[in-house]
Design goal:
The chain is mainly beta and 454 residues long. It has one domain (10-48, 57-64, 160-207, 224-452). The chain has 1 helix and 36 strands. It has one helix at residues 226-231, and strands spanning 22-23, 27-31, 38-44, 50-55, 66-67, 74-79, 86-91, 98-101, 108-112, 115-119, 126-130, 138-141, 147-151, 154-158, 164-169, 174-181, 186-194, 204-211, 217-222, 238-245, 251-257, 266-267, 270-274, 295-301, 308-314, 316-317, 326-327, 329-336, 342-348, 359-360, 363-364, 372-378, 385-390, 399-407, 410-418, 444-452. The strands form 10 sheets. Strands 3-4-6-7-5 form a 5-stranded mixed beta sheet, with no helix packed on it. It has a 4-stranded antiparallel beta sheet with strand order 2-36-35-34, with no helix packed on it. It has a 4-stranded antiparallel beta sheet with strand order 8-9-10-11, with no helix packed on it. The longest helix is centred in the middle third of the chain and has 6 residues, at 226-231. The protein is globular. 56% of the residues are buried.
Length: 454
């Protein structure tokens, strides 16, 4: 197996980052076939290349695919550092549910109904594989190469060769995400539990827990019961949705709340104390909300003991003639770069700040409906939104950001576009220096974008 060419400064080819409404990307492109496709993960390899994963049927982009374990519609796609050139496509399983690249070796960990597989950096060879009792949905790779996998509510921790380091079950109604830290030897898990009872009646409570490899809890955040939450009148349904170790070594959490009276207002380990929430305008101050529309909350924690350092909300706003009410902004994935700048993605409803003025490489980012699969970059001190945009263009819609990553001077997002009735070709998103500028068709497509870091 040859050694991949190392690109000394892959970010340089994309120009400088400029904060504000005029966003600039290296590329924004579909990766899709003529049927129903999806995106699930995106990451950077240590040699600078972009690695995308999901389901891509009936389109190999002019390449001869590498078929492993019988092939399938599941795809791991390696692209040039600017994302403009496809270098290989590896087919494995019906779909890839999640993927992460080890930051040093470049080995690629993928999960799906097939279990967990570790691929070589060129994605040509299966290095290690293991079937699991149920379909795997999430994977995280630590700095030392160890791997954690979520399958249902079961967590499995492996070393780099998939030898077991521990396994345990996680309690809760829904388990949404996990991350692994080899430094503290902890697995971080987020989700929520349904815990109904007066005075809140029906209640969803978020949790962020740190587990040792033997399944014992090191610390936990939120994770209250309905009696405790009801006593301080924080009865809005809230959920933990995403967790990640940032490249700055801190732990990042993203959740949602269906109302302003949420446990996210409280210190996660002390309900009696209000949390430090940074607010500077109406888009991060959850007042005058539009019923129970889900609003975002994201925060930075110390991974060692779960201490909350900073937190902030994200809401959209209806137009003044509709009462300027706070509207939906639902997060899906979070991470942070080496400086602690936060990168968040998910889906918004109408309307993002300055929507009519926002462009991507000079093209209008929005159509008439100013919502969609968004990218949000927030300065490390939470004092400024560096970028907040979508890639819908004048026609695109039905979009949801599903994954974000950062490294090597760049950031990237993976987005899924879906439609209930019309094929994606009826509502194209922006294509910018694109490998595939137009939708593939069907009722869903995968899409990605790459840009320089702040």
């Amino acid at each position: 197996m040859g050694t991949p060419t190392v690109i000394s400064d892959p970010g340089a080819m994309c120009g400088d980052f400029v904060a504000g409404d005029a966003f600039k990307v290296c590329t924004a492109s579909y990766l899709a076939g003529p049927g129903d496709d999806s995106a699930s993960a995106i990451d950077f390899a240590p040699d600078g290349r972009v690695v995308f994963a999901g389901k891509v049927a009936e389109n190999n982009f002019g390449q001869t695919p590498i078929e492993l374990q019988g092939g399938g519609d599941g795809a791991v796609i390696r692209l040039s550092a600017d994302g403009r050139k496809l270098e290989s496509i590896t087919r494995l399983g019906a779909t890839i549910a999640d993927m992460q690249v080890h930051a040093t070796s470049g080995n690629i960990a993928v999960v799906g109904a097939f279990g967990v597989v570790v691929l070589s950096p060129d994605a040509k060879t299966v290095l290690f594989s293991k079937t699991l009792a149920s379909a795997a949905t999430r994977v995280s790779v630590a700095a030392d190469g160890s791997i954690v996998v979520l399958a249902g509510k079961h967590v499995s921790v492996f070393d780099a060769s998939l030898a077991s380091l521990g396994e345990f079950d996680v309690s809760g109604t829904t388990i949404n995400d996990l991350a692994l830290d080899s430094g503290t030897k902890q697995v971080f898990v987020v989700g929520f539990k349904q815990d109904d009872g007066a005075p809140c009646t029906q209640l969803q409570i978020p949790f962020l827990r740190a587990y040792r490899f033997d399944g014992k809890i090191s610390w936990k955040a939120y994770d209250w019961n309905h009696t405790e939450v009801g006593a301080v009148n924080e009865c809005a349904d809230s959920r933990g949705l995403s967790v990640a170790l940032g490249r700055d070594g801190m732990l990042y959490y993203a959740g949602e709340s269906h109302g302003g009276n949420t446990v996210h207002r409280r210190m996660p380990q002390d309900l009696a104390t209000m949390s430090p929430v940074t607010k500077f305008d109406k888009y991060n101050d959850p007042y005058n909300l539009n019923g129970a529309a889900p609003i975002s909350y994201y925060a930075r924690f110390k991974p060692g003991d779960g201490s909350l350092l900073m937190g902030q909300y994200l809401v959209t706003r209806l137009s003044p003639d509709k009462g300027d009410k706070g509207n939906a902004a639902r997060p899906t994935a979070i991470t942070a770069d080496e400086k602690g700048n936060i990168l968040l993605t998910g889906a918004t409803a109408c309307c993002i700040e300055n929507a009519a003025q926002k462009t991507v490489n000079g093209l209008p980012a929005f159509g008439a409906y100013a919502g969609g699969g968004f990218v949000l970059m927030v300065a490390s001190d939470f004092s400024q939104r560096l970028v907040w945009t979508v890639f819908d263009g004048p026609q695109g819609g039905g979009t949801n950001g599903v994954a974000v990553t950062t490294g090597g001077g760049r950031m990237a997002v993976a987005i899924v576009q879906t439609s209930k009735t019309m094929p994606t070709t009826a509502s194209p998103m922006l294509g910018i220096d694109a490998l595939q500028p137009s939708p593939g068709g069907g009722l869903s497509d995968g899409y990605f974008a790459v840009w320089r870091t702040p």
